[in-house]
Specification:
heterotrimer, A: about 350 residues, alpha/beta, 13 helices, B: about 325 residues, elongated
Amino acid sequence: MKSVYGNYAKVKSETVLEVINLKTWFFTRRGTVKAVNGVDFALKSGECLCLVGESGCGKSVTALSVLRLFDSPPGRIVQGEVIYKGTDLTKCPMPYLRKIRGKDIAMVFQNAQSSLNPVFTIGDQIAEQVMVHQRISRAEALDRARMLMEEMNIPQPGRALKMYPHQMSGGMKQRAMIAMSLSCNPAILIADEPTTSVDVTIRAQIIYILQELKNGRDMSVIFITHDLSLVKEIGDRAAVVYGGKIVEVAPVEHILKNPAHPYTVGLIDCLPDISAQNKRLPSIPGNTPNPLDMPPGCPFHPRCPKVMDICRAVEPATVNITDVHAVSCHLFVNMDGGSGNG
Amino acid sequence: MTDIKQARRGKPVVDKRLLHYYWERLSKNRMSIAGLGFIVLLSLVGIFGPIFIPDPQKTDFEIKNMPPIGFSIDESVYDIKTGEFTTTVILGKPDHPLGTDSKGRDMLAMLISGARISLLVGLLATGIAIFLGTFIGVLSAYSGGWVDNALMRFTDIMMTFPFFLLLVMIVFIFGPSLAIIVLVIGLTGWTGAARLIRSETLSIRTRDFITASRALGASDARIMFNHLIPNVSSLVIVMATLSIPGVIMAEAALSFIGLGDPMSTSWGTILNTGQHSLDTAWWVAVEPGIALFFTVLSFNFFGDGLRDAFDPKASI
Amino acid sequence: MVSNLLLQVKGLRKYYRVTAGLMSRTRGEIRAVDGVSLAINRGEVLGLVGESGCGKSTLGKIILRLEEPTAGEINFNGIDVINLKGRDLREMRGKMQIVFQDPDSSLDPRMTVGGSIEEALVVHGISDSAELEERVARLMEKVGLEAGFRERYPHEFSGGQKQRIGIARALAMDPQLIIADEPVSALDVSVQAQVLNLMMDIRDRDGLAYLFVSHDLSVVRYLSDRVAVMYLGKIVEMADKEEFFKAPLHPYTEALLSAIASLRPDGRNRILLTGDVPSPLNPPSGCRFHTRCHRMMPVCQQIEPQLTESAPGHYVSCHLYA
């Protein structure tokens, strides 16, 4: 299976992570939940790739699948590969995966409240993370923790290390989580909606930190969000996820100026800040699909304003409409400009 | 109260659609359905069984200590004259399929009438306890302030009350009887329910739909009867179902130690008589034990399934 | 002559006592709402923004008498709301309604949606089943739902649909003012647009006024006529929408707007606030915002600024403009 980026991957820089036709399904009593149903993307060194989509589209499960963090029954990776440093993470043995987790690939979650252990201080938690992966003394680990807190613009970092999560505000907890994830200098950071549950001004601080980090460290970021304005601020490339598949991917300016997939077009149009004032907001009729009961063919067809007969029956292939912009839609099947799947 | 009456307007208290939804969820849990099946069976046996059996109390020393069908036991008799033991093998017979006890009473008959007793005690005592618990819990949560405080302190005191001591005293004064057991269990067992129901009521009160009703101008009474109580009812049902096995066991335990009515054939009483003949007639103790085991297990499975079915967050 | 003024709030305060210990000693006060004055005209949408803990939700509830204010005045259609009782209170309740944020908890799960929608009508004395059925049907159609769904239960609907049901319920008694407390925050973006369109339509058709409480500035910009910002229980700026987004005055407003790239006024840089929101139990002295303000002056630490009209229709509470 060829990766979606075809020529673009070779044009830019090297690929650090490649996800190929990933399918993660959950086998429950109610039926099979096809949360991720054929996701392809390649993450390049130093870039920030945003996975954009609404609730239930499968973006979070995709992130969890990279490190196999989802609940294993009932979930299972039924197909696909996640290639990191030549190894397929979906099939590698657990000890190897554990070494990768936290050290090479780190993750920041949405809700810092439930991701931090309430009975340990922040300093202890960060130090533990470091000591698991490296043979340094506790004192050195704590020192590293303090430097990370400084990097996060947390005031009085020494004092902050001794605090328990409940003593910290929401924004501080979120930053502590990011500090923890950076403690072993990971090559890849996966951030799952890190700013969704915080206030606007704290969000600004966190985005600023993430931008500085991206520029300062040699790190690639997968940033998961439903907020297109965030994508504009922090992303290099954006991949739009719908119904467990990636329906469009391109550099951020391209995708915001020239969205190709009807879903992307609809999503951008229905945002109140970009559309014109006081006119009716365009909206996408219907609801996001139920992963238990995916429609056949293209998952977006029940809501698509440009639906054709073929969309109801056949899944569209991914096609490169320019050498940096790929779309999965029957409208573009004959427009293959690069070496797409056709 | 007129607006409450108008709200119900002849609609059934429980809507078929809602029942169907809960039944769908419940039926996906196989253990739960198995439990329900056993409970139904037990109920049928308990209600109709005693019509068909001979008098369980009828003693017949000729056929004492007969094992259940398919089993045999050796009986040794010491002959004083000869100074020797003669051993005969007694076999189980189909006319007493579960055997007989040391007084020749038919085990199956006793167990069936015991089923009726266990169910009655279970339902009645639980009924009293849950009714009291709900009343106090809802009242406490809804009133708030000093009433809430006073009722909860009263509940705390009752929780520490030595009901066993009370039972012994009453039995000493009035003699043992099942009615006393039912009353004592009921009147002292409501405390756990009261606390849980109170906290559930408090949490429902803060939900948006209650605020919405207040914003519409609904009276306190209307909110209590139309919104609070229906939403608490699922907890009450689950609590009741899960309390029944505890009550049945409590009654069995009390009868076992002799505080129950010795003339009754409750499973606990049978166990009591059976403990003395474990070597000569082990089935007298084992059979009621098995019956109790399955009964308690079934109620627990069914209750767990009910709780999951009612809980909107449980993904079924 | 009917005045255009629908709602007027003056000096509204809500203090919560914090108690501790066995004997419930008073440990302090949370000043959730601390002297708020505002006015809403008929058919106008006032957007109220602020971050968590600023008191905007509490303000909405107090206006509806869902909580009792500690001090202040509320006048609705010229009538003093605070001292209303009994039937008068109930009548007022029909005219001012609320829509909640969380679609999952705003509807009684044990009641059909038809039952939830008609509750207001029943409470206000309408008992004829035929009339109730007809009115519920009309309300459901108004919010874009099939009338035949009235016998269904909330769990059978999606989030967006549940919000519509909540709106239908609020519209039952033909209110003149709706307090919308983050009505679209819990919805997906594509569904948000549907519900926002619905709210606009209802406003245009029925002349409803909204107090639109939200933390999402882009939504507020779309829907509002005027915007007010709250910080730690006080209003720090209030202006017409255009003015507000083009030329904000208060440093906090500047920071809020600059946090979202697409809303940053032209020519201004990004402003990052330091620190976190102070605890409402222990608000800073003087101007509450001074601890995080990028334009703080010495006077800000000592004296609390008052809300003054620094340009026509543009109110701000800041020493820079006093």
